Amino acid sequence: MSKTEQQKSTAADEGIKQLVSTLPTKPDCNSTTNLLYQYQGFWYHQFYLEHLIAAQTHFTPEPNSTILCSYPKTGTTWLKALSFAITTRTHYPPSQSPLLSRFPHDCVPFFELAPSVARNKLLVATHYTIHNSSFYRKGEVGDWRNFLTEEMGARLDKIMADRFAGSGLGLWFSASNQETTN
């Protein structure tokens, strides 16, 4: 990072700290020394809030960006691994996937914890609420046909059948709509 970039970053950090200092606070019930800060209708610890604001300030999604938004402990690691594998499937042969030697959190950064790293990524993750509804798409049964060709769907079905082979799990299709059910 150049000296000018460092100065801008320091000024931005000071601006964020100034903003945080003006927000409503309340004591954290799990700590006698930490405060929670209210921002955009939610309560955050200062460390996470400063990173969240930095991410909101510096991260500009591209039209083909994917933001994975999940609650903690709901399968985020699995979601990151699956999403990374899908979005980079044409970049690496299966035997050379970065997921074979790196943790999914290294491949798909949390944009609030590493906004400078996430800035140029097309796939990032967050545990924070994103208020802009343009980031969301309502998934519906059969909607995959609007995004994948029949050949792509058949290829995914074969991959899943191969992966589930011998596990006792499988994909079942309804004769009425040819959609996967459990």
Automatic annotation (TrEMBL):
Alphabetized, the UniProt keywords read: Transferase
EC id: 2.8.2.-
Ranges for domain Sulfotransferase: 65-114, 127-168
GO molecular-function terms, A-Z: sulfotransferase activity
**Cross-referenced Pfam families:** Sulfotransfer_1 (PF00685)
Q: What class of enzyme is it?
A: transferase
Question: Which PANTHER family does this chain map to?
Answer: SULFOTRANSFERASE SULT
Please state which protein family the record places this protein in.
Belongs to the sulfotransferase 1 family.
Q: Could you tell me what this protein is called?
A: Sulfotransferase
